[in-house]
Specification:
The protein is 37% helix and 20% strand. By secondary structure, the protein is an alpha+beta fold. InterPro entries: FAD-bd_oxidored_4_C, FAD-bd_PCMH, FAD-bd_PCMH-like_sf, FAD-bd_PCMH_sub1, FAD-bd_PCMH_sub2, FAD-linked_Oxase-like_C, FAD-oxidored/transferase_4, Oxid_FAD_bind_N.
């Protein structure tokens, strides 16, 4: 059976206008966000309902056409990019953008997978609730992709990752069967919780078409501070003390190195209030008591030594402090390329990681630049290295050596090489090098059971290629 026959049948199924084949139409789906991977799909399909997705999967099995699920195409590791064979069908889920149910009394909502994260936040707000996942790409990333990558973001410290926020899933399996576990239950001991197979699988086990997600009371009070401290150990000591004092009212604990703030100042000038060895963005939130919460944070900070500090006095000032943190990745991109790492270690091990990795990199690449920032509250750092050679020539020729140095330290400290961005195409061989072989074998066994023909997102880490 030919590709032309498949595309004709697909067009009959979902409509010709939703089967993109012209070069200018498919180009946005072919290149990953970091412009590292360029694929060439057979076509791009944009189904509009779960039933169409299920029929599409059955059709792909009959014609042996690989499927590459794609949400907002914001992956930083090529997880949603097709290969260059011209055989795979990209399945974009943006038309699955309906709100199925909002149950404010149960603190849950059920949405289709193509709803953007920003829209999901808005839906929750309209019900006087909070959906706490927050990412820089929230205007374009989609709920299905957030689940497929187990997205983390800026509020994991209090609310957890997408795995913690998901109550139920609807998934089209590779053979077209539909697993419907859309449920608002918080407790269910009737067997294995199958949704966890698909969260974090990066589209290699099925196509997530809808989800039931947790909602929370909207915070009525927030206290936010940008504070400079003398060293990383002090930062982590503060994290423990803040948890002891404020418990789950501590929503965010971000840290940025002096080099990060210096770079921000280079581009943003006086928007950066000070530069310290380490700068912390701290936010508390509560259901009420704005003045009491602010006063409690001020009193707590007054008892500690700091290099400098700013406490937001208005919502505008709060947003301005947040903007500094959110601008970090884009500002670094303007400076030039870097070898990026999305590592995670126990929060208590962050100072040791920074010291050991920094020393090893300086010995291997004297004068290299390291930008370290991220979600210290959950142990996730974005650790980016540049200028390994004079004038940064051939930076990526050093990528393997840099990664080996960084990952050796990470795993010595019982960490992970992928805390929130996933594996995709970028880190497949590193996963082979560091992941427990039995764990990887078990995951690939599940892949064989659910996708025996290997048609779901081939060429990624579960394929063993």
């Amino acid at each position: 059976m030919s590709s032309a026959e498949f595309l004709s049948a697909l067009s009959n199924l979902i409509g010709t206008r939703y089967v993109l084949q012209a070069r200018q139409d498919i180009e946005p789906f072919c290149l990953d966000m970091r412009s590292r991977y360029l694929g060439q799909p057979l076509a791009v399909a944009l189904p509009g309902t779960r039933a169409e997705v299920a029929e599409l999967a059955r059709l792909a099995q009959r014609f042996c056409v690989p499927l590459v699920p794609q949400g907002g195409n914001t992956s930083t590791c090529g997880a949603a990019t097709p290969d260059a064979s011209g055989r795979a069908l990209v399945v974009g889920l943006r038309r699955l953008d309906r709100t199925i149910e909002v149950d404010a009394a149960n603190n849950s909502m059920t949405l289709e997978a193509g709803v953007t994260l920003a829209r999901a936040q808005q839906i929750a707000e309209e019900a006087d609730r909070l959906f706490p996942l927050s990412l820089a790409s929230e205007g374009s990333c989609q709920i299905g992709g957030n689940l497929a990558t187990n997205a983390g973001g800026l509020a994991v410290l209090r609310y957890g990752t997408m795995r913690d926020l998901a109550l139920g899933l609807e998934v089209v399996l590779p053979d077209g069967r539909v697993l419907n576990q859309l449920s608002g239950l918080r407790k269910d001991t009737s067997g294995l919780d199958l949704k966890h197979l698909f969260i974090g699988s990066e589209g290699q086990l099925g196509l997530i078409t809808a989800a039931t997600l947790k909602l929370f009371p909207r915070p009525r009070a927030r206290a936010t501070a940008l504070v400079g401290v003398a060293d990383a150990q002090t930062a982590i000591d503060w994290l423990g003390a803040l948890r002891d004092r404020f418990a789950d009212r501590l929503t965010t604990f971000e840290m940025m190195s002096a080099d990060c703030l210096t770079l921000l100042r280079d581009y943003q000038g006086d928007k950066v209030p000070f530069i310290a060895p380490w700068t912390l963005l701290i936010e508390l939130s509560d259901s009420d008591g704005q003045q009491a919460l602010e006063s409690a944070l001020v009193e707590w900070l007054a008892e500690r030594e700091m290099v400098d500090g700013v406490i937001a006095q208005s919502e505008g000032e709060r947003l301005a402090l947040w903007q500094l943190r959110e601008d970090m990745s884009e500002t670094q991109k303007r400076r030039g390329p870097s070898i990026k790492h999305d590592i995670g270690v126990p929060s208590s091990a962050i100072p040791a990681f920074l010291a050991q990795a920094g020393l090893a990199l300086e010995q291997a690449f004297p004068g290299c630049s390291i930008m370290a920032f991220g979600h210290a509250g959950d142990g996730n750092l974005h650790y980016n290295v540049s200028f390994t050679r004079p004038r940064n020539a051939d930076l990526f020729d050093d990528e393997e050596r840099v990664n080996r140095i960084v990952y050796d330290v990470v795993y010595r400290l019982n960490g992970t090489l992928a805390a929130e961005h996933g594996i995709g195409q970028l880190k497949t061989h590193w996963l082979e090098a560091y992941k427990d072989p039995l764990a990887l074998s078990l995951m690939r066994s599940l892949k064989t059971v659910l996708d025996p023909n290997g048609l779901m997102n081939p060429g990624k880490w579960l394929s063993g290629e």
